[in-house]
Specification:
The protein is α+β, with helices and mostly antiparallel strands. The protein has 2 domains: 1-194, Gyrase A, domain 2; 204-323, Elongation Factor Tu (Ef-tu), domain 3. It has 8 helices and 18 strands. The chain has helices spanning 28-37, 57-64, 111-120, 146-150, 178-187, 195-204, 220-223, 240-249; strands at 12-13, 22-24, 40-44, 48-53, 76-83, 89-97, 101-106, 128-131, 136-142, 162-165, 168-174, 191-193, 254-261, 274-277, 280-291, 295-303, 311-314, 317-323. Strands 13-16-15-14-17-18 form a 6-stranded antiparallel barrel. Strand 15 and strand 16 (295-303) form a beta hairpin. The radius of gyration is 20 Å and the shape is globular.
Length: 342
C-alpha cells in the first residue's frame, strides 16, 4: 500500500523494497543529522504488521522463535528470528509485548506470509493471529529527543502500542491516523526523514536487514544476530541445532562486514554486486547508503577466511572493511557491539 505521506512536499519515493514510502523529503543530509542530533520521524508504513493475542502467546512464540520471550513483561521490546530446520533465516521479527498481545513488524511484503505461517502452527493453543498490514502503519521516531517528540502525538482515541529500543521508537499507528500524526510532529518542528537517512543509520550501526543483506543460505551467526535476536540459553526451537553447533564449534562460512566505500565515486554499488579481492569474488554486497558523516557505506557478506585487513573492490568501487562479525565467532559470539536493537 502506497503511503499517503508520499504526497508531502519534497517527497521522493524510495527504491524496492521500500518504494511505497519516501527515500527523502528533499534534504537527505539534514534528515540524517536530525536523526543523529535531535529528533526525526520516519514513515515505515510499508512494514508488515502482525498481532498475536491469547493467553498462550508468549510460550508459543518462545517455542517457534530464536528469542526467549516466555516471561516477557509488558513493554518488552526485542527482536527474534524464525529459522527453518537447517538454521536458515525465514523471518526477522521486531517484537513488542504490551500485556495483552505481541505486536510484530517485519519486512515489507512479508506480513501476510508470516501471519499464514503462524496460523499454521497454532494447533490447539489459545492464540489468535491478525494480519494488520492494511490497518496499522509503523511510524518511527529517531534521535536523542525522540521521547519529547512522542509526547506531541495527538490522542488517537485508543491505546497506542509503542516499541522503544536504543535505535528508535516504533509506533503501531492506525493507518488512517498516519497523516495526522506526521502533521502534528512536523507542525511542532520535528523533521521528516526518509528511508535514505534511516538506512544509512542502520548500516552504520551494523544492523543487517533480511532479504537485503541476507540470502537463502544465511544463518544467524553470519549476520551478527546472536545476542540481539538469538538467545543461546533457551529451549528447543526449529533450527536450534545449527545455532548450537556453530556457537560451540565456531567458524560460520561467511561473516558480515561494514564497507567504507571510496567517496570520490558518485554511485553506490548495486545490491548483489560481487565483493572482489584481486579479481576474484569473495563475497556479495548488500544494502548501501550515503551517511551524513561517514560518507558512502555498505554492508556485505564475505568468506570467513578473508583476512580482516583486506581491501576490496565492490562493483568497481574501492572499499575498506570494518569487522562486524569476527572470523572466529563461536563460543564467545564476538559481535562488534556498535549494533543496537532493531
Amino acid at each position: 500500500m502506497t503511503s499517503p505521506l508520499l504526497t508531502r512536499p519534497g517527497a521522493v519515493a524510495a527504491a524496492e523494497p521500500d518504494s511505497d514510502v519516501a527515500a527523502h523529503y528533499g534534504e537527505p543530509v539534514q534528515e540524517g543529522r536530525a536523526m543523529d542530533r535531535s529528533a526525526a520521524w520516519i514513515d515505515r508504513g510499508n512494514r508488515g504488521v502482525v498481532r498475536v493475542s491469547g493467553p498462550d502467546r508468549l510460550g508459543w512464540l518462545n517455542d517457534l522463535t530464536s528469542q526467549d520471550v516466555a516471561r516477557a513483561e509488558p513493554g518488552t521490546a526485542t527482536e527474534a528470528l524464525i529459522l527453518d530446520t537447517k538454521g536458515h533465516i525465514r523471518f526477522h521479527l521486531s517484537l513488542l509485548e504490551d500485556g495483552e498481545a505481541v505486536w510484530i513488524h517485519t519486512e515489507p511484503g512479508a506480513g501476510a506470509e508470516l501471519a499464514a505461517f503462524l496460523d499454521s502452527m497454532r494447533f490447539m493453543l489459545r492464540v489468535e493471529i491478525e494480519d494488520l498490514g492494511d490497518t496499522r502503519a509503523v511510524l518511527t521516531l529517531a534521535g536523542p529527543d525522540r521521547e519529547a517528540a512522542l509526547s506531541l502525538i495527538p490522542d488517537l482515541g485508543a491505546a497506542l502500542p509503542v516499541r522503544r529500543t536504543d535505535s528508535g521508537t516504533d509506533l503501531f499507528l492506525p493507518a488512517g491516523s498516519l497523516e495526522e500524526a506526521a502533521s502534528a510532529l512536523t507542525d511542532a518542528g520535528i523533521r521528516a526523514a526518509g528511508m535514505q537517512a534511516y538506512e544509512a543509520a542502520r548500516i552504520a550501526d551494523h544492523r543487517p536487514r533480511l532479504g537485503v543483506d541476507t540470502d537463502h543460505r544465511s544463518i544467524p551467526h553470519e549476520m551478527g544476530w546472536v545476542g540481539p535476536a538469538v538467545h543461546l540459553e533457551k529451549g528447543c526451537y526449529p533450527g536450534q541445532e545449527t545455532v548450537a553447533r556453530v556457537h560451540n564449534l565456531g567458524r560460520p562460512p561467511r561473516r558480515l562486514v561494514l564497507l567504507h566505500l571510496d567517496g570520490t565515486v558518485e554511485r553506490l554499488p548495486e545490491r548483489g554486486a560481487a565483493i572482489e579481492l584481486d579479481g576474484r569474488s569473495v563475497g556479495v554486497a548488500g544494502s548501501s547508503a550515503r551517511h551524513h558523516e561517514l560518507g558512502p557505506i555498505a554492508l556485505g557478506l564475505v568468506k570467513r577466511t578473508v583476512p580482516v585487513e583486506t581491501q576490496f573492490a565492490v562493483d568497481g568501487i574501492a572499499a575498506g572493511q570494518e569487522v562486524v562479525v569476527d572470523p572466529d565467532t563461536g563460543a564467545n559470539a564476538d559481535i562488534r557491539l556498535r549494533r543496537r536493537p532493531a
